[in-house]
Every structure is written in structure tokens, then in C-alpha cells.
Tetratricopeptide repeat-containing protein
Amino acid sequence: MRHPIILTLFAATVGLAACEQSGEAQVERAMQDINVVDETNLNDVMLTVGDPDEAVRYFANANANDPGRIDLQRGLAKSLIRAKRPAEAITAWQAVVANEDATNTDRVELADAFIRANQWDEAAATLNTVPPTYETFQRYRLEAMVADSRQQWDKADSFYETAVGLTTRPATVYNNWGFSKLTRGDYAAAERLFGDALRFNSNMFTAKNNLVLARGAQRNYSIPVIPMTQIERAQLMHTMALAAIKQNDITIGKSLLNDAINTHPQHFEEATRALEALENNTSN
């Protein structure tokens, strides 16, 4: 007579155990989801605001613990680029590209790493593996730089122009394009392009300095009317002075060095040394 009760209790116990197991499984799945979200956020932090060397260590350990995950491989490669370790980044990007889930973006990033390591032929070969239908700012920016390295000026100009049209922030491209024109001796075109760079980013000191070099090469020794701090103005005067001295316009160079020293709010060691050396050479 007690068997039905025992069976009922057994069934209830089994059902309760099953519910508990089901509940535990749900909790486990939920925790896994939370861990994935947390890891994704941490990965993003490491790739942006984290210390580059710390990010390298983080992704190296993550790759060792979970090998084959392309997101972790990419994280390591990008972190090595941020840490200015291009030779190691090449190896890391090659591992990414070898992954069956690699994309054309990854191949372009590998080409970028080759360029940073001054391996231009390898960069060109890598870009050649990317189909022409893959048209991005980064791809054309690198294509332009490779063409520059080979003095293929028409191709470089075409690629720079295409890259400019594919971004809303073309300042760095205009600056690179201007420097290309500067090395070719097309100083007027270089000056225009550095001016374009500053229209999009008025804080880019490299473009300001290059603009002064382009003007100086044309024997235009006036400081351009662009936004600048007092320290930047002194530095640009120093650059202009050196450009004048290089072209044997010694008197103008000395005057600009004096202006740079007087303009700088602190002691301007480089300009002072240049002026002393110039005066010693003149007296001798």
C-alpha cells in the first residue's frame, strides 16, 4: 500500500533534482554569457586605453590559454603595433592571416606592419593578395606609400587622391602626400597639401613644420598665418632658419634664430646651439 507513495516521492525527488540540474545549467550558461561580455569589454579596453606593453602581455597570455581564437590573435597583433614593435607584429599578423577566418582587412593590417618595419617589397606583395574590389581608406593609403617608396609618382598621386575621398579625416593623408611632393621638389604643391592637412587638423605640428620647410625651399621665409602656440612659433622659426641657412641665406637664418630664441618662453637650447655654431663659423 505504501508503494504508490514511495513512487510519488521518488518521482518528486527526481523531478526536483532535474529542476536543480536544469537551474544549475541555466546559471552556468548565464555566467558564461557574462564572462564573454566581460572579456569583450576588457579586450576593447586593452586595445584602446590600456598601456600597450600591458596589452601585449594580456593578449599573449590569452592566446596561450585559448589558442586559435582569431579575435585574440588580432588583439595581440594590434597591441604589438601600438607598442611600436613592428617586427613582432608582423609575425602576429601572419598568424592572423593564416587563420581560416582571416579577412582582407587583416591582410591590409599585415601590409601596414611590413611598412612600419621598412619592408616595402613584402608590403607590396601582401597588398597584391587583396582583391581590387576591396576599396578602403587604409588600403589606398598604404598603396600610395608603397608607390612613393618605388618613386611611382603618378600611381602615388592617384592612390592618395582616392584615399582622401574615402575618409572624413584626411589630414594624415594630405600630410603624407605633401611630403611626397616635397621629396620630389614640387614645393608649391607640397605647400598646398600641407595647408589642406591643417584645414582638417589645425593641431598637427608635423604638417606645420613641413609647411614651413616647403615655404623655405621656395625662399619664402615668412611664418605662415596658421594657429600655433608660442612654443610652436619658436620651433617653426628654428625650422625656417635652418632652411634659410641650407640655401646659404645666412643673414636671414641668423635673424630667424634670434627671433626663435626670443620667442620661446623657456631656454631654446637647439636654436641657441645653432646660432652659436653659425656665429663661430662666420667669425672663422
